[in-house]
Structures are given as structure tokens and as C-alpha cells.
């Protein structure tokens, strides 16, 4: 009754399709690097998702740099229904990177429960290969803090 | 700026049936609602010279189907609050002299899915690249994404979030057209089927078939028509981001704040002037964000405000008096139904009538905090 009947996509898990403006990010994850962009005109403030200009000031003079990969768990839901490519229950999370930007991800190596998934827990990036072209940035509890 | 009360709603109606309507396609729902609203306003399709409906190619579909020749068209499609934006745009167009009588229609076969709009995610968009690969499956997984951060920031409990659904069911019980009318308790909510933690099925909106339509014209002309005019006193609109993961503040919607402040400023009203409030409740947390971001309560106070029954029947700020998207109806784009309830309250014809209601604020959301529209309505021209 209160469910959406149509899955957003059918069959396969949704695979990102890079665009010219985001290709560097996906090249980075494939090479095991989490690449962000920053604007020297805005004091080096990092931003995400990728675009060839600064969303703070409109400058096109922006740099790509490698993020530390350290993050904290910012918020999440635990989905209890089947979705293509996922086995419920599974958490869909938003993490806040040390550099200040937030991104959606999944949390690996951790029970998918409210007890284990504590807000603000430290996390580190890990890359999951989907195919030859795409590796997804996932996160897991930072070493020494495993729940 | 348009003078508050210069433009009025002269016709308002929902589809004849609501909930499960297997006998009508999406375009049929538009037409049924439009014909009901035209009848309410004492007008014919040939009297309409402005048309607004949501989405790609929809204005031409509806114009052709109903035999309307518009000289002003708005296809603004920013999700379920698009109708609040249509009202705002139509008021401006009428005031500017672009057209005289605007018809705004909604029809959605959300439940039966008969000739419905396709729901597709484009994998090359930013949402397709940076959200979709992590397993969201529509609004139930995306809309609640900020809730745990909101709860931690303000110490909101699961019981308080359950109370939103409990109180709205109390309103729905008074409404014969509500989809769900049986009373529920906090325990019922917290024991209902888990959809996406922290939300269970009773904290998620319905999926129904239905539609609604509004007719706007000048206040002068509205006073010569049969229905009691409902005046547009103010309005606001904004957008933030199509990706819920990128909202600037997980405890507050920027689009809500921008739209709400502009609507109050235009109307020149204070919060204490508001007799009746609608806040689009696709999920149980939205009334909390709405109450705080519109400024009815301070940050972090909304959960207690609702749990203490201030928005319940008999409370000082009647909220979502039709039962809301949680219990009344939710076709997919509920904003039209929130506007319909505001109009009923100001005409004095609502099933759960707020005695003497003079000013109603109707606040909508589109996408997952992606867009917002606020309309201030009154039954006196201001
Ligand atoms: Zn900059």
C-alpha cells in the first residue's frame, strides 16, 4: 500500500555512467584514489560532486586533489526491501569526509543494524570494483574502531 | 509586487473518486478534476485562457483533451509542490495581464499506473552517478536520509516521530474521503512493517490514484462567480538540490526557509495570524522540518510541539486537517491536495472544519527536499 511499485531501474544494480565532467573521479576510484576538487579563490574549500568550476564563486580555476579517505558516518537509512543488486536489510549512508564534503555510500564490514551503525563513527574509504571501468567508493569502520 | 488579495481561487475540486480509480488513465484524472473545478466556478473550458500542469508535454496534452486554447502556459515540474508554484506563477500572470482565467490541473494514476508518467533514473546525471549506485529505491529510501541526523541533533525520539502519524490519523478519521480512517497508536506505528529505518510503513505516504484542479482569476471577477473566493495573500518558491545527500543542512531545508519567508513577507502576516496550516507530509519527518523552517516553532521544538498535541484536533495550530499524505491520499504529487484542503477550510466546507479559519498557509515540498512552494490564502482580500 505505502510502497513504490516500480523499481527505479529493473534487473541490474544501477551502474554510474561517467560524463566528461566526472570522468576524473571515476578514473580515480579505479586507481584506488578518492579525488575531490577545490577552489584556491575560496581558500581551498573542497566541493563535491565534481564539476569544472567552483559552486561557491563560479571560478573555473579549480584543482583536483586526493582526499584522505577518512570520514564519519553522518546519516543513513536501513532499507528492508529488495533492490536490484542489494540484499536487504542494507544501509544507504551519507558520510562526511574530513575535507568537509558529504557523499552517499554503503558501509561495508559492519552489521547493517542501528546498534552497529553509530552516527559520527570514524570510517575509511575502500573501493569496490564493479567492472573494468567502474569502482565504487564505499566506506568501512576505521581500523581499531570496528564495531 | 502583486497586492495581497488581488488574485483569487474561484474554483477548486478533486477528482470525483479518490484512492483506487482503475477506470481512468492519468489524462482522464486531469480532465475529471478540471471539469469538477469548472463546474464549481461556473465556467466552461472556453472561458479558460491560461493553463498549468506538471511535466513534459502535459500542458498540450491537457489543453487538447479539454479543448482549451491557452495564451499563457506553465509546465513547471519540480515535484509534488509544483502546484504551489503554479498558483504563484498564475497570480503573477493574471496580474500582468497575460491571461484572465487560469486552470491548474493534476491527475496521477499513482496506484493503478494507467498511462502514467514514467519513472526513470538517468545513470549519467549526478544523482545517477553519486546516489543511485548505493541502492536507493525511490522516495522511501531517499527522503528519510536526514532523519537520524535530525534526531541526534535535537534529541527527537522514535515515539515522537510516530506521533506525527497518530495525530494525522485522528484528522483523517473525521474525513469520509480519507484512504485510512481507523485510529492508530504510537505502538501500532512502531510495530508496523519496517520500510527504511527509522521509518515504518505507517510513517510513509500512501500511493493512490486521484487528481485536483484550481481556477484562478482576479478578485473582482471571482466575486461575480458562484464559489466563495479564496484570496492569494502571498507566495514563495525555491529549489535546493536534486540530491538529498547534498542538502546543505540535514536538520533544515533551505528551500523551505526561502519559500516560506517570501510568502510571509508578501502576505504581510505574522505566525500568530495563521489559523490553519498544511505541510506536505510525504513522510513523517516533513511536518517537523516545515514547522521549524516556516518559523512556527524554534529549531528542535517541532517534535515536542506535535507530541503535545498542538497540531491535533482541538490544538492551537490545526495541521494537515485532511489526514495528509500519510492518511488522506498521496498520488505521487500531493501538493494539489494540500491546496484543496486549504481552500475547503477557508470556504468553511472542510469535513474537519477549523471554526472561523481566515488564513491558511499551505506549504509544499518537491523531490527529496529538492524544491518548495508556499502559498498564503485567506477568505478576506487582506
Ligand atoms: Zn571558489
Mean pLDDT of chain A: 90
Structural domain count of chain A? 1
CATH superfamily of chain B: Thiolase/Chalcone synthase
Give the DSSP E fraction of chain B (strand runs of 2 or more residues).
Answer: 15-25%
Average pLDDT for all residues of chain B:
97
CATH class category name of chain B: Alpha Beta
By secondary-structure content and strand pairing, the structural class of chain A works out as mainly beta
Can you describe this structure?
The complex is a heterodimer of chains A (147) and B (382). By secondary structure, chain A is mostly beta strands. Chain A has one domain (23-141). Chain A contains 1 helix and 8 strands; from the N terminus they run H-E-E-E-E-E-E-E-E. In chain A, strands 6-5-4-7-8 form a 5-stranded antiparallel β-sheet. Chain A has a 3-stranded antiparallel β-sheet with strand order 2-1-3. Chain A is globular. The model of chain A is unreliable at 1-10 (pLDDT under 50). Chain B is an alpha/beta fold and 382 residues long. Chain B has one domain: Peroxisomal Thiolase, Chain A, domain 1 (3-Layer(aba) Sandwich). Chain B has helices at 26-41, 58-66, 82-96, 126-130, 139-142, 147-154, 158-172, 186-191, 219-223, 254-267, 286-293, 302-307, 324-327, 335-347; strands at 7-14, 50-53, 72-74, 102-109, 194-197, 199-200, 209-218, 230-239, 276-279, 359-366, 371-378. Chain B has a 9-stranded mixed β-sheet, sandwiched between helices. In chain B, strands 5-6 form a two-stranded antiparallel ribbon. The two termini of chain B are 15 Å apart. The mean pLDDT of chain B is 97. The A-B interface holds A 1-9, 13-19, 22, 48-49, 74-81, 83, 85-86, 89-90, 92-94, 102-106, 114, 119, 130, 136 and B 113, 119-121, 123-124, 126, 128-141, 144-149, 152, 193-199, 201-202, 204-207, 243, 245-246, 250. Strand 4 of chain A pairs antiparallel with strand 5 (194-197) of chain B.
